[in-house]
Amino acid sequence: MGIKMTDIWAKPYHVIIEVENRECRIIKKCAKLGLKNLRVTDIRAPKTGSIKHLIELSSEQVKKIPEDEKIVASRGKNKGKQSLWFESKGCEVCKTILSRDAFLISGKSIENFIITYSFIVPTFEAYRKIITALEKTGHEVKVLKKGSFEPRTGILTKKQEKTFWLLLKGGFFEYPRKVGLKELSTKIGTSPSALSEMTRRGTRRLLENYFEEKASQK
């Protein structure tokens, strides 16, 4: 079973930017509740047009949130903290990033509406268009990190390498997962079953190579 990615994902980029976003409704809402310096661990864009933010909070912070503001129950705990979904209409920054076939991975509220956004885009051109569009609307953008997929010769095929790179950068291997096979398959233009099979075969190749190398070192 083969996996066919759309041509636009020939050389994807992982980007982290810092933006002053005073339009972010989630940050405004949390600020009114006395919640600052938030850690946004996941950002999703449902087909409804709204934006969902998964925010990590302490037990004391959770107590400050009215029940009707908690869109979805907590998704896992990390060192005594809970992660709660909040949903609102998307702001200009999120919509601009998502408009270029990109998908948001996470964000972090630092202070005074300064937010870092981590996202993956299919091409360098898409990345540049996002930055240009944000700057044209008056946002000061600071690029903190930018790295592209670079194929390597070795154990995996180029398609397997690229897909594992997307899964790794997209947070597939983290807990809780930031991207699932269904979401990624939609982005790269293949089916979830094909992506699952490719991941299985690639994982097997990696494990076989690992244990073969260990055996040869004895």
Structure characterization notes:
With 218 residues, the chain is an alpha+beta fold. It has 2 domains: 9-148, no CATH class; 151-216, Arc Repressor Mutant, subunit A (Orthogonal Bundle), CATH 1.10.10. Helix content is 36%, strand content 26%. The protein has 7 helices and 8 strands. The protein has helices at residues 25-32, 59-63, 92-98, 124-136, 158-170, 181-188, 192-216; strands spanning 13-20, 39-44, 50-57, 77-78, 81-89, 103-109, 114-121, 141-148. It has an 8-stranded antiparallel sheet, sandwiched between helices. Helix 6 crosses helix 7. The longest helix is centred in the last third of the chain and has 25 residues, at 192-216. The model is unreliable at 71-76 (pLDDT under 50).
End-to-end separation:
36 Å
Which percent range describes the beta-strand content? 25-35%
- Order of helices and strands, N to C? EHEEHEEHEEHEHHH
- The residue fraction in helices comes out at 25-40%
Question: What's the gist of this structure?
Answer:
By secondary structure, the protein is of the alpha+beta class. Helices cover 36% and strands 26% of the residues. The protein folds into 2 domains: 9-148, no CATH class; 151-216, Arc Repressor Mutant, subunit A (Orthogonal Bundle), CATH 1.10.10.
Task: Please render the helix and strand layout as text.
Layout: E1 13-20, H1 25-32, E2 39-44, E3 50-57, H2 59-63, E4 77-78, E5 81-89, H3 92-98, E6 103-109, E7 114-121, H4 124-136, E8 141-148, H5 158-170, H6 181-188, H7 192-216
Antiparallel strand pairs: 1-7, 1-8, 2-3, 2-6, 3-5, 4-5, 6-7
Helix pairs in contact: 5-7, 6-7
